[in-house]
Amino acid sequence: MQLFPMTTVLDIWFYIRFDLRFTLLRAWRYVQPEMLKLISCIIFIELQKHLCSNNHPYHKFSTGNWDTLEVKPKEKGLDTRAELINFYDSHYSANLMQLAVYGKESLDNIQTLVESKFCDIKNVGRKHFSFPGHPCSSKDLQILVKAVPIKQGHTLRILWPITPNVRHYKEGPCRYVSHLIGHEGEGSLFYILKKLGWAMSLEAGEGDWSYDFSFFSVVIQLTDVGHEASSHLRDGIPLSRQEPS
Protein backbone atom coordinates (compact mmCIF):
# COMPACT_ATOMS: atom_id res chain seq x y z
CA MET A 1 0.00 0.00 0.00
CA GLN A 2 1.36 3.39 -0.99
CA LEU A 3 1.22 6.02 1.74
CA PHE A 4 1.02 9.71 0.88
CA PRO A 5 2.00 12.70 3.03
CA MET A 6 -0.87 14.37 4.86
CA THR A 7 -0.55 17.54 2.75
CA THR A 8 -0.92 15.52 -0.48
CA VAL A 9 -4.00 13.70 0.79
CA LEU A 10 -5.70 16.97 1.79
CA ASP A 11 -4.81 18.55 -1.56
CA ILE A 12 -6.41 15.64 -3.45
CA TRP A 13 -9.50 15.58 -1.20
CA PHE A 14 -10.03 19.33 -1.52
CA TYR A 15 -9.56 19.20 -5.28
CA ILE A 16 -12.14 16.44 -5.73
CA ARG A 17 -14.63 17.87 -3.24
CA PHE A 18 -14.54 21.59 -3.92
CA ASP A 19 -12.96 22.26 -7.33
CA LEU A 20 -16.01 22.46 -9.59
CA ARG A 21 -13.90 22.17 -12.73
CA PHE A 22 -12.73 18.72 -11.60
CA THR A 23 -16.16 17.71 -10.33
CA LEU A 24 -18.06 18.63 -13.49
CA LEU A 25 -15.59 17.16 -15.95
CA ARG A 26 -15.62 13.82 -14.13
CA ALA A 27 -19.37 13.88 -13.51
CA TRP A 28 -20.21 14.59 -17.16
CA ARG A 29 -17.95 11.73 -18.23
CA TYR A 30 -19.13 9.08 -15.78
CA VAL A 31 -22.73 9.92 -14.92
CA GLN A 32 -24.26 7.96 -17.81
CA PRO A 33 -22.53 4.57 -17.22
CA GLU A 34 -23.07 4.93 -13.46
CA MET A 35 -26.75 5.60 -14.00
CA LEU A 36 -27.09 2.57 -16.28
CA LYS A 37 -25.24 0.36 -13.80
CA LEU A 38 -27.56 1.35 -10.95
CA ILE A 39 -30.74 1.64 -12.99
CA SER A 40 -32.66 -1.01 -11.01
CA CYS A 41 -31.96 0.77 -7.71
CA ILE A 42 -32.67 4.20 -9.19
CA ILE A 43 -36.04 3.10 -10.59
CA PHE A 44 -37.13 1.83 -7.18
CA ILE A 45 -36.02 5.03 -5.41
CA GLU A 46 -37.79 7.24 -7.94
CA LEU A 47 -40.93 5.10 -7.69
CA GLN A 48 -40.85 5.53 -3.92
CA LYS A 49 -40.52 9.30 -4.36
CA HIS A 50 -43.32 9.38 -6.93
CA LEU A 51 -45.73 7.74 -4.47
CA CYS A 52 -45.06 10.37 -1.79
CA SER A 53 -46.82 13.72 -1.42
CA ASN A 54 -46.11 16.00 -4.38
CA ASN A 55 -46.02 18.95 -1.96
CA HIS A 56 -42.84 17.65 -0.32
CA PRO A 57 -39.32 18.19 -1.79
CA TYR A 58 -38.64 14.45 -1.45
CA HIS A 59 -41.14 13.88 -4.26
CA LYS A 60 -38.86 15.57 -6.80
CA PHE A 61 -36.67 13.68 -9.27
CA SER A 62 -33.28 13.18 -7.65
CA THR A 63 -31.02 11.53 -10.22
CA GLY A 64 -29.73 12.54 -13.63
CA ASN A 65 -28.04 11.30 -16.78
CA TRP A 66 -26.34 12.80 -19.80
CA ASP A 67 -29.70 13.69 -21.33
CA THR A 68 -31.10 15.51 -18.28
CA LEU A 69 -27.83 17.21 -17.31
CA GLU A 70 -26.43 18.18 -20.69
CA VAL A 71 -28.71 17.66 -23.71
CA LYS A 72 -32.06 19.00 -22.47
CA PRO A 73 -30.62 22.01 -20.59
CA LYS A 74 -28.79 23.10 -23.76
CA GLU A 75 -32.03 22.80 -25.73
CA LYS A 76 -33.59 25.21 -23.23
CA GLY A 77 -30.61 27.57 -23.35
CA LEU A 78 -29.43 26.64 -19.84
CA ASP A 79 -25.80 26.30 -18.78
CA THR A 80 -25.76 23.44 -16.26
CA ARG A 81 -22.28 24.32 -15.06
CA ALA A 82 -23.28 27.93 -14.40
CA GLU A 83 -26.41 26.77 -12.57
CA LEU A 84 -24.36 24.42 -10.41
CA ILE A 85 -21.82 27.13 -9.58
CA ASN A 86 -24.68 29.46 -8.63
CA PHE A 87 -26.04 26.75 -6.34
CA TYR A 88 -22.59 26.25 -4.84
CA ASP A 89 -22.16 29.96 -4.18
CA SER A 90 -25.65 30.22 -2.67
CA HIS A 91 -25.67 27.17 -0.40
CA TYR A 92 -22.12 26.02 0.38
CA SER A 93 -20.86 27.60 3.58
CA ALA A 94 -18.09 26.67 6.02
CA ASN A 95 -20.42 26.83 9.01
CA LEU A 96 -22.41 23.88 7.55
CA MET A 97 -19.35 21.67 7.00
CA GLN A 98 -17.37 19.36 9.22
CA LEU A 99 -14.02 17.69 8.62
CA ALA A 100 -12.37 14.85 10.55
CA VAL A 101 -8.64 14.33 10.00
CA TYR A 102 -6.70 11.42 11.49
CA GLY A 103 -2.92 11.36 11.26
CA LYS A 104 0.32 10.77 13.10
CA GLU A 105 1.24 14.45 13.13
CA SER A 106 0.69 16.60 16.21
CA LEU A 107 -2.66 18.34 16.68
CA ASP A 108 -1.04 21.75 16.20
CA ASN A 109 0.53 20.68 12.89
CA ILE A 110 -2.71 19.11 11.65
CA GLN A 111 -4.70 22.23 12.57
CA THR A 112 -2.22 24.50 10.77
CA LEU A 113 -2.26 22.25 7.70
CA VAL A 114 -6.06 22.03 7.55
CA GLU A 115 -6.50 25.77 8.00
CA SER A 116 -4.05 26.47 5.18
CA LYS A 117 -5.85 24.09 2.80
CA PHE A 118 -9.44 25.02 3.59
CA CYS A 119 -9.24 28.70 4.51
CA ASP A 120 -10.67 29.76 1.13
CA ILE A 121 -14.04 28.13 1.86
CA LYS A 122 -16.31 31.03 2.69
CA ASN A 123 -18.50 31.20 5.75
CA VAL A 124 -21.61 33.04 4.61
CA GLY A 125 -23.70 32.04 7.61
CA ARG A 126 -26.11 29.72 5.82
CA LYS A 127 -28.70 27.78 7.82
CA HIS A 128 -29.25 24.05 7.50
CA PHE A 129 -31.90 22.92 5.07
CA SER A 130 -35.01 21.77 6.86
CA PHE A 131 -38.08 20.06 5.41
CA PRO A 132 -40.48 19.58 8.35
CA GLY A 133 -43.03 16.84 8.04
CA HIS A 134 -42.86 13.40 6.49
CA PRO A 135 -43.16 13.02 2.71
CA CYS A 136 -45.91 10.43 3.21
CA SER A 137 -49.34 11.70 4.15
CA SER A 138 -52.09 9.30 5.21
CA LYS A 139 -53.31 8.92 1.61
CA ASP A 140 -49.80 7.94 0.51
CA LEU A 141 -49.67 4.91 2.82
CA GLN A 142 -51.06 1.37 2.62
CA ILE A 143 -50.39 1.13 -1.10
CA LEU A 144 -49.44 -2.03 -2.97
CA VAL A 145 -47.40 -1.56 -6.14
CA LYS A 146 -46.42 -4.36 -8.49
CA ALA A 147 -43.57 -3.71 -10.91
CA VAL A 148 -41.92 -5.85 -13.58
CA PRO A 149 -38.21 -6.21 -12.68
CA ILE A 150 -35.35 -5.68 -15.11
CA LYS A 151 -33.44 -8.68 -13.78
CA GLN A 152 -34.95 -12.10 -13.26
CA GLY A 153 -36.10 -12.63 -9.69
CA HIS A 154 -38.70 -11.66 -7.13
CA THR A 155 -38.27 -8.99 -4.45
CA LEU A 156 -40.78 -8.01 -1.78
CA ARG A 157 -40.14 -4.57 -0.25
CA ILE A 158 -42.16 -3.28 2.68
CA LEU A 159 -41.59 0.31 3.83
CA TRP A 160 -42.82 2.32 6.80
CA PRO A 161 -42.34 6.03 7.52
CA ILE A 162 -40.56 6.45 10.86
CA THR A 163 -38.91 9.02 13.09
CA PRO A 164 -35.22 9.27 12.03
CA ASN A 165 -32.93 7.11 14.14
CA VAL A 166 -30.46 10.02 14.41
CA ARG A 167 -32.91 11.76 16.74
CA HIS A 168 -32.47 8.83 19.16
CA TYR A 169 -28.91 7.87 18.27
CA LYS A 170 -27.99 6.95 21.86
CA GLU A 171 -30.75 4.35 22.11
CA GLY A 172 -30.57 3.26 18.44
CA PRO A 173 -34.13 1.90 18.06
CA CYS A 174 -33.70 1.25 14.32
CA ARG A 175 -30.58 -0.81 14.89
CA TYR A 176 -32.39 -2.82 17.54
CA VAL A 177 -35.39 -3.54 15.32
CA SER A 178 -33.24 -4.23 12.24
CA HIS A 179 -31.24 -6.84 14.16
CA LEU A 180 -34.43 -8.35 15.55
CA ILE A 181 -36.13 -8.68 12.14
CA GLY A 182 -32.94 -9.44 10.22
CA HIS A 183 -31.79 -12.22 12.57
CA GLU A 184 -31.24 -15.50 10.70
CA GLY A 185 -31.01 -17.94 13.60
CA GLU A 186 -33.48 -20.67 14.50
CA GLY A 187 -36.96 -19.29 15.19
CA SER A 188 -36.34 -16.07 13.28
CA LEU A 189 -38.56 -14.75 10.50
CA PHE A 190 -35.98 -15.59 7.85
CA TYR A 191 -35.45 -19.06 9.31
CA ILE A 192 -39.15 -19.81 8.93
CA LEU A 193 -39.41 -18.35 5.42
CA LYS A 194 -36.31 -20.23 4.29
CA LYS A 195 -37.60 -23.48 5.81
CA LEU A 196 -40.81 -23.00 3.83
CA GLY A 197 -38.72 -22.52 0.70
CA TRP A 198 -40.07 -19.00 0.23
CA ALA A 199 -37.03 -16.75 0.78
CA MET A 200 -33.36 -16.63 -0.16
CA SER A 201 -32.40 -13.52 1.84
CA LEU A 202 -33.88 -10.90 4.13
CA GLU A 203 -32.62 -7.44 5.03
CA ALA A 204 -34.13 -4.89 7.39
CA GLY A 205 -33.09 -1.40 8.39
CA GLU A 206 -33.41 2.34 8.05
CA GLY A 207 -32.78 3.89 4.66
CA ASP A 208 -33.13 7.14 2.70
CA TRP A 209 -33.24 9.34 5.79
CA SER A 210 -32.76 12.95 6.80
CA TYR A 211 -33.03 14.68 10.16
CA ASP A 212 -36.71 15.41 9.43
CA PHE A 213 -37.95 12.08 8.06
CA SER A 214 -36.94 8.50 7.43
CA PHE A 215 -38.09 5.11 6.17
CA PHE A 216 -37.70 1.64 7.62
CA SER A 217 -37.67 -1.18 5.09
CA VAL A 218 -37.80 -4.95 5.02
CA VAL A 219 -36.51 -6.43 1.75
CA ILE A 220 -37.03 -10.13 1.05
CA GLN A 221 -35.59 -11.93 -1.98
CA LEU A 222 -38.25 -14.50 -2.80
CA THR A 223 -38.04 -17.85 -4.52
CA ASP A 224 -40.55 -18.71 -7.24
CA VAL A 225 -42.57 -20.56 -4.61
CA GLY A 226 -42.29 -17.60 -2.27
CA HIS A 227 -43.49 -15.27 -4.98
CA GLU A 228 -46.59 -17.42 -5.53
CA ALA A 229 -47.20 -17.46 -1.76
CA SER A 230 -46.32 -13.79 -1.18
CA SER A 231 -49.96 -12.88 -0.56
CA HIS A 232 -49.61 -14.73 2.75
CA LEU A 233 -46.72 -12.44 3.68
CA ARG A 234 -48.98 -9.42 3.16
CA ASP A 235 -52.02 -10.79 5.00
CA GLY A 236 -51.25 -8.77 8.12
CA ILE A 237 -50.77 -5.49 6.24
CA PRO A 238 -53.93 -3.52 5.31
CA LEU A 239 -53.47 -2.16 1.81
CA SER A 240 -55.22 -0.17 -0.85
CA ARG A 241 -54.37 -1.55 -4.27
CA GLN A 242 -52.54 0.48 -6.90
CA GLU A 243 -51.66 -1.14 -10.20
CA PRO A 244 -49.12 0.34 -12.62
CA SER A 245 -50.75 2.61 -15.18
Tell me which oligomeric state these chains represent: single chain
Using the coordinates above, name the CATH class of the largest domain.
Answer: Alpha Beta
- What's the mean pLDDT score? 81
CATH superfamily of the largest domain: Metalloenzyme, LuxS/M16 peptidase-like
Shape: globular
Strand order of the largest sheet: 2-4-3
According to CATH, the fold-level topology of the largest domain is: Cytochrome Bc1 Complex, Chain A, domain 1
Low-pLDDT stretches are: 239-245
Number of strand segments: 5
Number of helices, counting only DSSP H or I runs of 4 residues or more: 10
Number of domains: 2
* Helix fraction by DSSP (H/I, runs of at least 4): 40-55%
Largest sheet: 3 strands, antiparallel
Assess the beta-strand content as a share of residues: 5-15%
Order of helices and strands: HHHHHHEEHHEEHHE
> Roughly how many Å is the radius of gyration?
23 Å
Q: Which structural class best describes the helix and strand composition?
A: alpha+beta
Distance between the amino and carboxyl termini: 53 Å
Which architecture of the largest domain does the CATH hierarchy give at level 2?
2-Layer Sandwich
